[in-house]
Specification:
alpha+beta
Length: 160
C-alpha cells in the first residue's frame, strides 16, 4: 500500500529533479496524476532510497516518463495521453547493457565551474533512456547524475 508521507517525499524529489514538474499542463488537465505517480513510485520502490531520478514531462503529448534508480532496482514509470494512467515496471540493475556518454563538459576549455554538462544514454533491457530525461532537468539533478555515475557504471552487465 502506498504511504502518504512517502508519496509526498517522492513528489518533492520529482519537483527538485525537473523544472517542468510543478507547473506542467498535464497536471492541470489531469489533477490526480501527480498523486497517482507518487503512489506508483512509492509501491514500486518499497523502502528503497532513491539514488538517482530523472523526469521527462512532454507537454505536447501530455506524457510523463520517470526513471528511478534505487539500490539494485530500477523503476520505470510512463503515462500516455490516451490513458493518462501510470504504467510502472520494476527492473534489476543487472539489465543495464550499456552507457553512452553523449555530452560531457570540456574542462580544458571552459572556465572552472562554468559548464556542468552531462548527458548519457543508458540501454536497459533493450530500451534506450536519456539521462537527464529532458532539458528541464534542474542543476541539482545534473549534479546528482554526476555523483551517481560511478555507481551506475558498476551496474553494467558483464561483457562475455
Amino acid at each position: 500500500m502506498p504511504d502518504y508521507e512517502n508519496a509526498k517525499s517522492i513528489n518533492r524529489k520529482l519537483n527538485s529533479a525537473s523544472k517542468n514538474w510543478a507547473g506542467a499542463k498535464v497536471f492541470r488537465r489531469y489533477p490526480d496524476l501527480k498523486g497517482q505517480i507518487a503512489s506508483h513510485l512509492d509501491v514500486a520502490l518499497g523502502n528503497a532510497e532513491i539514488d538517482y531520478l530523472t523526469v521527462e514531462v512532454n507537454e505536447t503529448d501530455f506524457r510523463v516518463g520517470i526513471l528511478a534508480f534505487a539500490g539494485l532496482r530500477i523503476v520505470w514509470l510512463t503515462t500516455s495521453e490516451e490513458t493518462c494512467v501510470p504504467s510502472t515496471s520494476i527492473l534489476s540493475t543487472r539489465h543495464i547493457e550499456s552507457i553512452e556518454l553523449v555530452n560531457v563538459s570540456n574542462v580544458m576549455t571552459s572556465t572552472w565551474g562554468e559548464s556542468d554538462a552531462l548527458n548519457l544514454e543508458v540501454e536497459i533491457g533493450g530500451t534506450t533512456f536519456s539521462l537527464p530525461a529532458d532539458s528541464g532537468a534542474t542543476e541539482s539533478n545534473v549534479a546528482q547524475l554526476k555523483s551517481y555515475l560511478p555507481a551506475l557504471m558498476e551496474h553494467l552487465a558483464p561483457v562475455a
